[in-house]
Design a protein that fits this description.
By secondary structure, the protein is mainly alpha-helical. It is flat. It contains 5 helices and no strands.
């Protein structure tokens, strides 16, 4: 029964794809101006683009949290000053964004250079995952406490490990392979 069902759908899929190919061949002149129908080129740095996109979203999330803390109105009294609690929250969130901004660009620059130097893709992918995971863990851990936390400790260690790995790999590719 299963084999017959598979053969039936395989045949239908083939017929559908053959009809679609014929239709596309007849009507492709209508869609040539659309970017999706144009010939695609190989993406030069896909791993770096994915890592930068993820880190960009994390950065945007942190900045929006910062803006929300800034936009809260004082409860009463002078509108120019915030309460000490709100001021401390804002200062802490600003430190989280500053720390994120301190490490993420260096990691992305090293990642892009390593990927563009034709380093092994598994190495580049592994270091990219470690960098993104480290930055996310650190931002999460540091957002809740300025002291010790699991996220802050492991995020810092993973970030340092990824930057060290990217730097050493870059030196290896430049001096030994290059």
């Amino acid at each position: 029964m299963g084999a017959a069902l598979f053969a039936f759908f395989k045949g239908k899929t083939f017929l559908f794809s053959a009809k679609l190919n014929k239709w596309t061949a007849r009507h492709s002149h209508r869609f040539r101006h659309m970017p999706i129908m144009q010939e695609r080129t190989n993406m030069p740095l896909p791993i770096t683009l994915a890592a930068a996109s993820l880190l960009g979203l994390v950065h945007l999330f942190l900045v929006i949290r910062n803006a929300m803390a800034r936009s809260t109105k004082p409860e009463h009294g002078n509108h120019d000053e915030q309460s000490p609690d709100k001021s401390a929250i804002l200062e802490h969130r600003m430190r989280v964004v500053a720390n994120f901004t301190e490490y993420a660009p260096l990691g992305l620059i090293l990642l892009g250079l390593l990927e563009s130097s034709q380093a092994p893709h598994l190495l580049v992918l592994g270091l990219a995952i470690i960098l993104v995971l480290g930055r996310i863990l650190h931002a999460w851990g540091f957002s809740y406490t300025s002291g010790y936390s699991f996220g802050r400790l492991w995020g810092t260690l993973l970030t340092w490990f990824s930057i060290a790995g990217l730097s050493l790999s870059g030196l290896y590719v430049t001096l030994i392979m290059g």
